[in-house]
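pasting for the record
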Amino acid sequence: MTTNRDNKRPTKTGKIPLLSFFTGGGFLDIGFEQAGFEVLWTNEIDNVFASMYNFGMTLWRRSVIPGSTEALISARGNIETIYAPKILKDAFNGKKPPFFGIIGGPPCPDFSPGGKNRGGDGANGRLSKTYVNRICRIKPSFFVFENVSGLHRTKIHREFLYKLEETLEKNGYCLDLRILNSLEYGLPQNRERLFLIGIQQSLVKQCLGRIVKTCDRGWFQWPEPEYANAKESYSWPDIVPEGKRPSKSSKIPIELTVYSLLNRNNDPLKLLNGKDCFKPYSDKFDTIREGDTRRKSFKRLHRFRFSPTVCYGNNEVHLHPWKRRRLSVREAMRIQGIPDTYALPEDASLTAKFAIVSNGVPVPLGRAVARSIMSFFKDVRR
């Protein structure tokens, strides 16, 4: 992956260009770049996150293409004050290409059951509307809007989502949405995310060979899960009784267990961020049994089961299955599907590292969606 150092002009790679909003650590970007897209413009309001992105994405891109230039966040700031003309000028030198996309996941705490639940009126929630407004002004060929499942499943939030959809439909986009779980795509984490995809109506007609009304749904070919209904399809082990050894069913795919990411043969401690971990002070590290994830805090993973949703804060990180400590940053990154060649700077705080990891989209989930979009456009002349 290569771009000019000022991040303004795309190189002639022939890849579909993307603008990335709410970039964070760039995990959604990685998934799309792995699928063959090229991110040309990025946005992040948090300066600490932006610096971590610069470090991590530079390492990852150079592992893919040696000699790639330094990755830099294009625009640091709130998108409420970064307007469409400026974005287009910085991304494309003012010459908007005929075919490009926008991806992004607006902050989700106001729609999350574990958040403040303020919806579209919250400080974070209103950024979803701003994101939609930027899409309508920039008019990309397609876009991806990613968020928590609560935006669709909670009635009051769903009404807000409907209003966003109406705005996008009035601007000529055909929409489709789906809640996807990363566990069903080969990652040992139970994490649901809502994906709303919008494609210009004329392009949908061109790709499908038929007219799709902007109010229609179900026309997009979502990625097929590798492990459909994984939570219900297997007999997952329960809490390990005291004095007993944990057991794994031979019917459970090993790749759907955290053991596949933490075992000695695939040792994360030997990698960058592998030993970045909060010191264990509490007596609870000695008393909580493996697989006991019932409480809000101090959830101990089961080595032969998937992880609960990675959602860390206030130094609350899931406990290692068989060691007396919390997970390290590298172990948490693996549970998010982040490549081992991506790393976070040593001088960043542990709190910031865990926050940026847990805020992101699981890379395999983003990649699966990206591949479906790429497949949809395979016959489009660009």
